[in-house]
Design brief:
Layout lengths: L5 E5 L3 H18 L3 E5 L3 H4 L15 H8 L5 E5 L11 E5 L8 E5 L12 E4 L3 H13 L4 E4 L5 H9 L5 E5 H6 L8 E3 L13 E6 L3 H7 L5 H16 L8 E10 L2 E12 L6 E9 L4 H17 L12
Parallel strand pairs: 1-2, 1-3, 6-7, 6-8
Antiparallel strand pairs: 3-10, 4-10, 5-8, 5-9, 11-12, 12-13
Helix pairs in contact: 8-9
């Protein structure tokens, strides 16, 4: 008698299906049980409004979480950058697998790099965070660009470039890698130019807090370094009281001396979308050995950023 299949709740987009499929294979390997994908439509998938207007990327998460809590699925996979920073009662973040490339990338006409774009180039992105940093970089380096708010899946966004509506679009490297389209990237944006969204490139696997057996099995997929990094990044976001659609970038990376990992550096940025004002700071400390230490790293940097005026740059504060 084969064991009952585990049900994995996923959004229906090509990217969500791809990353959920990869997780399903890994979970199947550690549990020895088949995993079936259960497609769930979220409000964020059917609404055509600008994301910031309908509550940011958290709208993609709510329906999946409800399905887990109602017992319609056993667990769910999210892009970690979409998760609101408050953990809901009854659910646990059972695993954060090893992170993909956290960088943002450019897909531009004529295979151009960011610095080779024509004067007045129109760059599409739905993220105020990307707009703020691209515009700040352009101002500092004498480039003339216009950032244009867009929505849609990867095909839709790249389609704007192919059709000539836009000169370039900015996407997450991890998403293109996961759907096998990284060959369309024309420029990888250095994290010194554009800091990614907190948690970008990482996945979150969530299940009910009461299912100890499943929590233990999923925990085998957890990568402690990735978890520490994204915990620090999300702690910074929470301490700034910013939602997932606020113009906040953050990245924690490990600093190694040869083969030995010595420290973790956390960088944060917040800015006005026109790029006229940025608060950008970093802090370095021992690699957090506990969840609390990772949270503290994020809070400390947020406190410094708030002291330098970060609060006034975020527009609407998240409530």
């Amino acid at each position: 008698m084969t064991e009952k299949a585990l049900r994995l709740g996923t959004r229906r987009s090509k990217l969500a299906m791809a990353q959920s499929g990869q997780v399903a294979d890994a979970v199947s390997q550690v549990t020895g049980r088949p995993v079936e994908l259960v497609e769930i439509t979220t409000y964020g998938d059917v609404s055509r409004e600008q994301l910031a207007q309908i509550g940011g990327t958290g709208v993609f998460v709510a329906a999946l979480r409800e399905a887990v809590l109602r017992g319609e699925v056993d667990f769910a996979v999210h892009s970690l950058k979409d998760l609101p920073t408050a953990q809901p009662v009854g659910l646990v973040l059972a695993a954060v697998p090893e992170r993909e490339d956290p960088r943002d990338v450019l897909v531009a006409r004529d295979a151009r790099k960011f610095t080779d774009l024509p004067r007045g180039a129109r760059i599409g992105t739905g993220a105020p965070r990307r707009m703020a940093q691209l515009n700040a970089y352009a101002r500092a380096h004498g480039l003339d660009i216009e950032t244009v708010p867009i929505r849609g899946n990867v095909d839709t966004r790249i389609g704007y470039v192919r059709k000539g509506d836009l000169d370039a679009v900015v996407l997450a490297a991890a998403g293109l890698n996961r759907i096998g389209r990284s060959d369309e990237v024309t420029d990888f944006l250095s994290v010194d130019t554009v800091l990614p969204a907190p948690g970008q490139g990482a996945l979150a696997i969530e299940c009910t807090a009461s299912d100890a057996e499943l929590i233990a099995a999923l925990g085998e997929l957890d990568d402690p370094f990735t978890r520490a990094a994204v915990t620090a990044e999300r702690s910074l976001l929470a301490a700034l009281e910013a939602g997932c659609s606020a113009p906040v970038g953050a990245l924690a990376d490990l600093l190694a001396d040869g083969q030995t990992v010595k420290e973790m550096r956390l960088r944060g940025v917040v800015g006005t979308t026109d790029g006229s004002t940025l608060v950008q700071l970093s802090t370095t400390g021992p690699v957090p050995a506990t969840h609390e230490a990772a949270l503290a790293l994020g809070r400390e940097l947020a406190t410094e950023m708030l002291a330098q005026g970060a609060a006034g740059l975020m527009g609407e504060r998240a409530h």
